[in-house]
Amino acid sequence: MLDASNGRLKGIRIFRFGLIYKEGGGIETHLNTVEQLILERNKAIIIRAYQKGPKDCINPIIEKIGKGELIWIPFEPLFNRYLNPLPLFQLCLSLNKTKINNKLIKFMNYSLKRFQPHIPNWLYSNYRNLDLFIKQLYQQYNFDLAVIHTLSGTDEMQVINQLRELDVPICIINHFDPKKLKHPIVKLMTTKADAIGAVSINGAPRVYRNKLRLIVEGVDCDYFDPEKATANNFKKQNKIIFMPARIDPAKGHLDAVRALNLIKKREINAVLAFAGRIEASSTFKELTSLLNSLNLKDFVLILGELNKEKLREWYAKSDIVILPSYSEGLGRTILEAQLMERPVVAYDVGGVSEGIIDSVTGFLIEKGNVIEFASRIARLLTDDELRKEMGEKGRIFVSQKFSLEKMVRSHENLYLEALANHKLKFSKK
């Protein structure tokens, strides 16, 4: 049970930024849960800037939660991204934007364009004047702390540069594969933070050893309970392999289909169900093409994005859950699946090994080894006793290690560390 007594963030205004949507993905679910928990126990205000989706309102929305307020601030991407090296120069040289004249900016753009198409993606921006956007929000809400959740390139650099000019404490959280922290640009951005957290620290660079704090990926044990799912009475003719993941190249949907093809050759009656929004249309086209070429269209369900209730129902309907992701922070869905007493078969990437006990609550497979991946799935589908045993052990494991209380505490600790570190820097000036 979550401790709903007075928290340690009373009176604090937190600004949250990331190139993510309001809901629908793993990071969004993590943040929505954290904000609910923080505001239930803290008289605080959270200002959440998020990418506007097609159905989202264009105006800010104020939501009363517990003892505090959550203010939703949408922002929209450009139709065409543009080359924008300026934030990088600002970040490297600690320069104010006004100190870099237009001639230098034009020279930088001209020089870089000569190297096309070899310019890295992170030098392009999808948003214009993010620095001005941040400044206006600060003038309106006067926040005490900024928490950044994505580090894709110059868009976040614009945000970090402006926050530093405003002298706002910065907290950075990595929700992705810890190896992402090895990228020189990510390293550069994290040097400007007052505190750094990550949902997985497995394989993080040694330079972060004394700086990186673990952010617990908490899940709701009461909600994700197989006894509460109506789908327990669902009658099915085939075994169901469930993969809840947005359709993106890194998530491994093509490997899942190839594994299904190998399983069908063993004459195992199984269907594969995908759930998640389509983030890469090119990947979806590849997926459709592969299904057609392998004659598997009748054995694969594309469910789209599911709400929390439908997601729980599909966990309950399924026999096993898979995640053949090529890059992952930890993988929230593998925790939810185990709470629903479903064993998981996943590629051993990023922090996934922190969320599964190999050969006890599921199986960890070498990335890209589709034959072994299919073999482990087939074993679970044909061994009801093993599947039940792993599922029960999975629920016990996740309930003990990934509680909501541990999750909210890890966030509170990181935020307070950022505020304290910033204050210490200021006192030394």
Please specify the SSE layout and strand pairing.
Blueprint: E1 13-17, H1 26-41, E2 45-51, E3 61-65, E4 68-75, E5 82-83, H2 86-93, H3 102-113, E6 124-125, H4 130-141, E7 145-148, H5 154-165, E8 170-174, H6 184-190, E9 195-198, E10 212-214, E11 239-244, H7 253-265, E12 270-275, H8 281-293, E13 300-302, H9 308-317, E14 320-323, H10 332-339, E15 344-347, H11 352-355, E16 362-365, H12 370-382, H13 384-401, H14 404-428
Parallel strand pairs: 1-2, 1-7, 2-4, 7-8, 8-9, 9-10, 11-12, 11-14, 12-13, 14-15, 15-16
Antiparallel strand pairs: 3-4, 5-6
Helix pairs in contact: 2-5, 4-5, 7-12, 10-13
Distance between the termini: 44 Å
What share of the residues does DSSP label as strand, in percent?
15-25%
CATH superfamily of the largest domain: Glycogen Phosphorylase B
Category from helices, strands and their pairing: alpha/beta
Explain what the structure shows.
The chain has about 425 residues and is α/β, with parallel strands linked by helices. It folds into 2 domains: about 15-220 and about 405-429, Glycogen Phosphorylase B (Rossmann fold); about 225-400, Glycogen Phosphorylase B (Rossmann fold, 3-Layer(aba) Sandwich). Helices cover about 40% and strands about 15% of the residues. It is built from 14 helices and 16 strands. The protein has an 8-stranded mixed β-sheet. Strands 13-12-11-14-15-16 form a 6-stranded parallel β-sheet, with helices on both faces. It has a two-stranded antiparallel ribbon with strand order 5-6. α4 packs parallel to α5 (about 155-165) and α7 crosses α12 (about 370-380). It is globular, with a radius of gyration of 23 Å. The model has no long low-confidence stretch (mean pLDDT about 90).
